Amino acid sequence: MSDRLNLAVIIGSTREGRWAPAPAEWITGVARRHGGFDVDLIDLLDADLPQHLTEHDMWSTESDPSAPVAALSERLHRADAFVVVAGEYNMSIPASLKHAIDYYMNEWAAKPVAMITYGGKITGGQNAAQHLRQIFPELRTMTIRNTIAFPRFYQDFDERGQFTKFAENEPAAKTLLEELHWWGRALANARSATPMPNPF
């Protein structure tokens, strides 16, 4: 088995004026330089999931899902690991991210996920990260230990409008990706060796 893993980086906000694409593109670049990942950058705004969550889509049954649901399902299935980039809205995650998580079940299972958060408070979106740590285990998805947070990110732009904190966070990003790669490889091997038991 190749040592390269398929990594999905998910832009978890669809709100107008969102900052999420910037850290998502940054971690995508770091992951590509890492050498152990083939990276798929997924923007939930482009995914255009239907707002009405149907039972067929939610539980991944044999019925035909809508085209947007099927397209995102294929990309999530292909991933061996995830990085979720999310701002903190009202002490939690964006509704668009929860909606996308709830649409799928098997796509997330037995894979690791890392979290990069940001927010207007000193916690840097860590309330969102803690909520994701409660949500993902229900889908049998493992959240890794390391996270990256950007507190009060709006204060860290230079006169050219460039964010100034990415470079100093690159060592933390490399550590996060090393941990994610280890878990991604271990769980990929486990999935190949033995199918996960039905949780129901």
Automatic annotation (TrEMBL):
Q: Which GO terms describe its molecular function?
A: FMN binding; oxidoreductase activity
Known SUPFAM superfamilies for this protein? Answer: Flavoproteins
User: What sequence ranges are listed for the domain NADPH-dependent FMN reductase-like?
Assistant: 6-153
UniProt GO cellular component terms:
cytosol
**Source organism's superkingdom?**
Bacteria
InterPro entries (UniProt xref):
Flavoprotein-like_sf (IPR029039), FMN_Rdtase-like_dom (IPR005025), NAD(P)H-dep_reductase (IPR050712)
> Gene3D superfamilies recorded for this chain?
3.40.50.360
Instruction: Kindly give the Pfam families that the UniProt entry links to this protein.
Output: FMN_red (PF03358)
Name the record gives this protein: NAD(P)H-dependent FMN reductase
Q: What is the lineage of its organism?
A: Bacteria, Bacillati, Actinomycetota, Actinomycetes, Glycomycetales
